[in-house]
Design goal:
This protein is an alpha+beta fold. It has 14 helices and 29 strands. Belongs to the OSBP family.
Length: 756
């Protein structure tokens, strides 16, 4: 959900008026819709467009009595009585700006309401503790004022007596100088008595003022108490987390003794939130549960220096020294941008590749007029204009799986099969990172169409794809790397349009073999779903499970792609899994997201925990700190106008010499679309499809003729691949039979059909 909000708010948080675009949840049919929100005078109003502000308001919520909540990094929930707004910002920073503005506006609205209550004479109820705290000082102040008044009366009384005594002395017959001194003494006594009444009167005025403002003080005190309670709760939570982290640094349970030290916890392999607390029985022991069927694992991060008795070398056996996990070894700490030149010690210059393509034209199209007659049909059989495409073929999209080939180069260096499995698992997830923004459909390859990617001198590998079947559409792929691995696959795409979403189900196994060890890995892809086909912003999700099996060592990795749910608090696009050996013993926890990064955490200890309410056994894992195996490369500048292509994708359709005449780079409709000439591309696309239909009809006629004559008809045979029964899976699969690169060296393309 969500998407670009179309610009920052019009005013900074804290100003009287705050405006900007947000996405508001409407209903399950339309989902989130972009709306213009205006925050002013404690009221949040929204409009469909900015122009509507002059005449039509779609809704308003009063913040003085509203509850503000944040569900995840981009969501805001406002509730006031029976009215609730579910809002979504473009980013976490944007969300925080809005939350700050809403909180400030809410506080200001509450103050305005309280001031109006003071003017009307209404008094809000305050808690008994607030009243006692406020009335206590007022009562003490009033008591002190009474004492001061009593002292003033006593001074006045004694002063009057002194004045009478001085008057009597004046009436006596005394020497002249004595009379003058008595008069001076009388004046000195009267003046202080007169001035003493001024501070007493000021004290009375202060007390009256304090009592008149007592109600405001009560409200302010109540507000401050609430803020203090929130702050205390926050500090308490931070203190618990800090305490857990301190105990984790002091040590964790050793495998030899079986004792446990307190540790910090983190979901899905990251140390971000410490929700577990020490048990009452042992203050230094914590337990962490993880569902086996839904691996939202909670890892326990231990200090390596307390675990020097825990097994053999990391790269030599399934369990390793924890201290080795933190060493900057050549496998885990090597650069993601490694190249063949670096591994061989040669400094050969790389060929300069293009870094941009023409910007995507802004053409509008009525999607419903095309799709309404296609519900329930196979997507590959629907004639689609290039407006829904991107200027790459399915063969080129398949080659994009090699974007992070360096993960396999690192896996070659691993001596442990379970450690190698971690890199293979990260590689299997990385192939989905390019799809997060790629909602456009690739071109369906023509039968016999090929695509080569020769990076043998630059990156150490060369790749070849061929469309080996048209109905059902199937593509065969073969990759050879000098660095010690070979990958091959045959993928058949099954897709169904369901009205609101499109399901894309890749069928077929992916094979990966390492030359030196002979480890042979096999896995299958998960289902991709394109949502909001008819209404709303298109977005893609991946869901399902991947089981990677090493058929030599019998190691396994179970990966789960959690589908997106509006009601879930999990991280979007979450992937979790466990790497285990042939005996079923878990060695590593895999965690991350398919659009950003993957991490693995080495398991030091595992045990069975309590049983869930569903009757399933939970597992407790204790691990070392996670290692980042893969992180997505940032997209190029201006990617949003270039179909969100990655750096590799931008080079895939770059014209190259000496390629086969059936190569996707030579496809005319695809080239016209990339150049922005979409109308011409649509005409050319129809011509190529009609040409392919004519070839298919001719083959069908030949098959009928051969049948009538009692002859065998082989039908279409792939050019560079042949069908064999796979020895590992027992499936019939197209494998590379050789000859392509030799034909390229000789520039002998006589076997290639004329498909363009």
């Amino acid at each position: 959900g969500g998407g670009p909000a179309g610009g920052a708010p019009a005013a900074p948080p804290g100003s009287d008026t705050y405006k900007g675009w947000l996405f508001k949840w409407t209903n399950y049919l339309k989902g989130y819709q972009r709306r213009w929100f205006v925050l002013s005078n404690g009221l949040l109003s929204y409009y469909r467009t900015q122009a509507e502000m002059a005449h039509t308001c779609r809704g308003t919520i009063n913040l003085s009595t509203a509850h503000i909540d944040t569900e995840d990094s981009c969501n805001i929930v406002l509730s006031n009585g029976g009215r609730t707004y579910h809002l979504k910002a473009n980013s976490e920073v944007e969300r925080q700006r809005w939350v700050t503005a809403l909180e400030l506006a809410k506080a200001k609205a509450i103050r305005m309401r309280n001031n109006q209550s003071d003017d009307s004479g209404d008094e809000e109820p305050a808690s008994q503790s607030d009243k006692s705290e406020l009335h206590g000082p007022l009562k003490t102040l009033s008591s002190k004022l009474e004492d001061l008044s009593t002292c003033n009366e006593l001074i006045a009384k004694h002063g009057a007596a002194l004045q009478r005594s001085l008057s009597e002395l004046e009436n006596l017959r005394l020497p002249a100088d004595s009379g003058e001194k008595i008069k001076a003494l009388s004046l000195c006594g009267v003046t202080p008595l007169a001035e003493l009444s001024l501070p007493v009167q000021a004290c009375r005025d202060f007390l009256d003022l304090a009592e008149s403002h007592s109600r405001k003080w009560q409200r302010l005190l109540q507000h401050e108490r609430e803020q203090r309670i929130r702050l205390e709760e926050t500090i308490e939570q931070l203190a618990k987390q800090h305490n857990s982290l301190e105990r984790a640094c002091r040590g964790a349970p050793g495998l030899a003794t079986g004792t446990a030290s307190s540790t910090s916890t983190a979901k899905a392999g990251s140390v971000q939130s410490a929700k577990g607390e020490a048990s009452d029985e042992d203050e230094e022991t914590e337990y962490f549960d993880a569902m086996e069927d839904a691996p939202a694992f909670i890892t326990v991060t231990a200090d390596p220096k307390h675990h020097r008795r825990s097994g053999s070398n990391l790269s030599g056996a399934s369990e390793g020294h924890p201290e080795d996990w933190n060493l900057e070894d050549s496998v885990f700490e090597s650069s993601n941008q490694s190249s063949y030149n670096e591994s061989t010690g040669k400094d050969l210059p790389r060929k300069r590749r293009r870094t941009r393509i023409p910007d995507k034209p802004n053409y509008s199209l009525n999607l419903w007029s095309i799709m309404k007659n296609c519900i329930g049909k196979e997507l590959s059989k629907i004639p689609m204009p290039v407006n829904f495409n991107e200027p790459l073929s399915m063969l080129q999209r398949l080659t994009e799986d090699l974007e992070y080939h360096e993960l396999l180069d690192k896996a070659v260096k691993c001596e442990s099969s379970t450690e190698q499995m971690c890199f293979v698992a990260a590689f299997s997830v990385s192939s989905y990172s390019t799809t997060v923004h790629r909602t456009a459909k690739p071109f369906n390859p023509l039968l016999g169409e090929t695509f080569e990617l020769d990076r043998l001198e630059e990156l150490g590998f060369r790749s070849l794809c061929e469309q080996v079947s048209h109905h059902p559409p199937a593509a065969a792929h073969h990759v050879y790397s000098r660095r010690g691995w070979t990958l091959w696959q045959e993928i058949t795409i099954a897709s169904k349009f369901r009205g609101k979403y499109l399901s894309i189900m890749p069928l077929g196994a992916i094979h990966l073999e390492f030359h030196s060890s002979g480890n042979h890995y096999v896995w299958r892809k998960v289902t991709s779903t394109v949502h909001n086909i008819i209404v709303g912003k298109l977005w893609i999700d991946q869901s399902g499970e991947i089981e990677i099996v090493n058929h030599k060592s019998k190691d396994k990795c179970q990966l789960k792609f959690t589908p997106y749910s509006y009601f879930s608090r999990d991280v979007p696009r979450k992937v979790t899994g466990v790497v285990s050996d042939a005996d079923g013993k878990a060695h590593y926890v895999m965690s991350g997201t398919w659009d950003e990064k993957m991490e693995c955490s080495k398991i030091l200890h595992s045990s069975h925990g309590s049983t869930s309410t569903e009757g399933k056994q939970k597992t407790v894992y204790q691990t070392l700190s996670p290692k980042v195996l893969w992180r997505k490369y940032p997209l190029p500048d201006n990617a949003e106008n270039m179909y969100f292509f990655s750096e590799l994708a931008l080079t895939l359709n770059e014209p190259e010499e000496r390629v086969a005449p059936t190569d996707s780079r030579l496809r005319p409709d695809q080239r016209l679309m990339e150049s922005g000439r979409w109308d011409e591309a649509n005409v050319e696309k129809q011509r190529l499809e009609e040409k392919q239909r004519a070839v298919r009809r001719r083959r069908e006629a030949e098959a009928v003729e051969a049948m009538e004559e009692g002859k065998d008809y082989e039908g279409y045979l792939p050019l560079w691949f042949e069908r064999k029964v796979d020895a590992v899976t027992g499936e019939l699969i197209c494998v590379y039979k050789g000859g392509y690169w030799e034909a390229k060296d000789k520039q002998d393309w006589s076997v290639c059909p004329d498909i363009f």
